[in-house]
Each structure stands twice: as structure tokens, then as C-alpha cells.
Amino acid sequence: MKGSELLVRALENEGVKVVFGVPGEENLDLLEALSESDIRLVVTRHEQAAGFMAATYGRLTAKAGVCLATLGPGATNLLTAVAYANLGAMPMVALTGQKPIRSSKQGRFQILDVVDMMDPVTKSSRQLDGADLIGAAVREAFRAAQSERPGATHLELPEDIAAEDTAREPIAKSVSRRPLVEEKALQAGLRSLRESKHPLLILGAGANRKQACRNLTSFVEKSGIFFATTQMGKGVVSEDSPYYLGTCAWSSGDYIHQAIEEADTILLVGHDAVEKPPFFMKKEGRTIIHLNYVEAEVDPVYFPQVEMVGDIADAARRLTEGWTQATDWDNSHFLKIRQILDQDIEQYSARDDFPLHPGRVVSDLREKLAPHDIITLDNGLYKLWFARNYPALAPNTLLLDNALASMGAGLPSAIAAKMVHPERRVVAVCGDGGFMMSGAELETAHRLGLDLVVIVLRDDALGMIKAKQNDLGFRDYGLDFDNPDLVQYAQAFGARGVRIEATEQFAQHLDKAFEGGGIWLLDVPLSYDGTADPPI
Q: Is residue 329 domain-shared with residue 356, that is, in the same domain?
């Protein structure tokens, strides 16, 4: 068979069902091989969107999503999405084409060193420089992408290697198990929690694995420990729990930070350094327990006293089994914080301002969605309000990026989420700045026949930066823009467009969109006045 055919056979061997991409002429051999396979090719309108879709596919399935681009500009367009997956710990394999490496008739036309370009933003990046090497290279790319900590890998397939004959076969997938936490370390963690007065559990991005979520829920219920989450740890334990304190949305200054300041022992599960420095390390006399698949990277702001390194799900099960109820815990401060935060969120939920307040948008959406329905967020100030005020009732139901935090990801992520979970309602929430970076993917969603609701929060500006500009005393400059008629824009792509003209219309049109099916775009005027600082 050809090298391209072996590559497709290797993808099938890894269980790949879909490839997202924008092919070029350097990918034609690969396209031919894909056409004879059961793998679905989804052509997107931009390579970056293909990468966002593949990353979200990997995030939701724990199996590496696959994206495809050509050489040169196709590969550079893919680069941001590759970094998005790698920094956000989403398993993804990126494939790019290249001119023949053994002879060239076009000099250096479109040729960049894509392998070296991808290297700093991937777990591995390599050129396939012989057809016989493809099977092993694909197996290793998927193994690396899916192993803890997950991320992106990259393979470059030159035209002549794609056409080269080979008699090799795909490499069989290996069976591997994560190492378990040492018993002495586990007992040290249990002892620290039992001896504390104000213990707190904080759930980070690395805890967001199915079995880990179930076992951590059992630990919370048995121990009665209060917990908070990072933004990418939302939903690990259902946030309708009486022990949920809140999410670290703002960096400091919110009610949740008062609770963290009170804690004398913190069990930090799945901490990922991409989610900003853990500010709670600054307090003297506090014990930090690190539970993660990998060891802590010690730096001036993160230096745990106890490390439990190994499989989180197994460790959470053993913590639950080994738990004996502590009698000296004082949770009175946490209970007070929880009560105040609930009152605060309720107050913002009742706002009837127009343009809408972010707190009202969050509340109306939460009321309309079932526990396992999915919201995908683009990046803007509204993201902090969703992280803070939207109770995630199941894992991976509020998909936000607090790692690379790239604009333009909201709509492509929603498309991938709906493909993975067609039985669930999926809503993309985008600012007008981020939406216009990937709005052409409405055509992709329409072509795929998806039911999707896209909410564009419109303030005709780069709202988050403008709010900070004003709050920090800078002059109002350089951040405003005009938008097209978003209703007509949606209609041009075969979607239904609705302009919200009163606060109560938002919830009403959500009902119509969910009942009507197809793609709906809601143009929602939003005001960021007074919302840049923590709402405390």
C-alpha cells in the first residue's frame, strides 16, 4: 500500500472517526485514502476552526481529535489551535502536508520548517521521512497525545512519502495503567486533613476525568469537605452540592478568595499551572496537599508540603475508603461565605437592565438547560461571569478555555460538542469580537445539519479590554468597532437570526430556538459597565 493508505489504516487502528481540516494539494494522496475509509472528513472554513474542533473532540472523548492542514499558510493557520489544545491539556493529533523531501521542482515556494515551528507548542512534532516509519510514528503520536498530561502532537506527511510503497502494518495499541499513589503519601494526606480545622478541597483541570469525578464526588459526600474549583475544574463535582463554595473566576477579591484565605489545609486535585499562580500559597502555616498524575513543579508561588502522585481516581477511592469522620472541623466561615455568594448570584440573576447584564444572561441560560447540556464559551469578560455564576452540574458541561484563552474558539467548539453529543442541547456563547473570528463556521454547522444555538453578546467593542482600560484609568481609545447586521448574517448561512430588543425576550427566544431546531443565532446586546472588577 501507499504511505498515505498506511496512515489512514493507522488512524482507523486508533479508533479515529472524524478528521477536521482544510486540505491542500499536498494532502491529495491522503484525501484519496480517506475517501476509501470509514473516517469522516469535515471540511471547515478555516484551519484554526478545524483545530479547535479537534481539540474539543479530544477534550470530550479523551481520545485524540485529529485535524488536517496543508503546508505553509495552512500550517501557520493551524498553529494557534495546536497551542490551544496543548496548553489546555486536550488530546489532539495535527497532520500537515509538505512538498516532496527527496526532490523539489518549486524551490522554497510555501515551504516553512513546520516541524520546528510546531515543536514548542506540542508534546512532539516530527516529519514522516519514510513510509515504513508511519505505523510506529502514528502510534507514538496518539500515545503521547492521550497520556497524562494530555496535549497536542504533530506529524508532517510529505507528498513523496505519502505516495511511497510500504508493506508495513499499523502498530497495535498498547495497554497501559497509570501508577498509583504510594500508601505512605496517601496516609500523610489523610492525616493532614483530619488534623486541620478549616480544610478545603480545590478541584482543577486535571481532575476532570470520568472516574475521578465519580470518586471525588463520593469523597466529598462522605467527608463533608467544602470544595471550590478552578475555571477548568468546573463540574468535576456537581455544583448543586451543599459543600460547593464557588469558582475562582477573578484572580482575587471575590468571596471565594475569603474562603480560601480561611483554609488551613488545602487538598488541591489536578492543579494545572496554566490556570494562573495559586495565590493561596502565600499564607504561612498552611498545608498544601498536591494530588495529581504528575509531580508538582515547585516555584516561588507553588510549593506543596505533601505530594500524592499517581492516578487521581484510585487515590480518591482510597481516600474515601480510608476516611474516618473528623470531629474538630469548623466550617462556620465557609457556610457564611456560601450563603453570601448565593445571595449575590441571585441578585445579579434578577437584573432587568437592557442591554442585558452578564449575570442575567447566565441565569436565564442555566434555567433553560438540563444538567448534561453543554455551553461552549469563547473568550471575553462574560466568561468570568459564567465561571462564577453558572453552576455546572456535570463534568464537561461548561467548556471554557482558561489556558491559552484564544478568541474565536466558541463556535467551533460547539460544533464538535454537538457532533460528540447529538442528544444534548449545545449552546455557543461568544462575544461579538470572538464570533466574527470564526463566524463563517455557521456554514459548516449548517452543512452538517446540526441543531445549535449561538448567542452573540454584542457590545460593539473588545469589551473585556475596554472595561479594564476604563477601570485602570486609561482613556477610551482604540477598542470600538462596527458589526454587520447579525440577523442577516445568520440568514445568509441558512440559520435563523433573532435580535433581542428587551431583557425578557432573551429567555423567550431561547425556548423558540430549542423547540425550532436547526441553527439559531441570538443577537444579544450586553453592557459591561461596572462588571470588570469582582462583583463583591
A: no
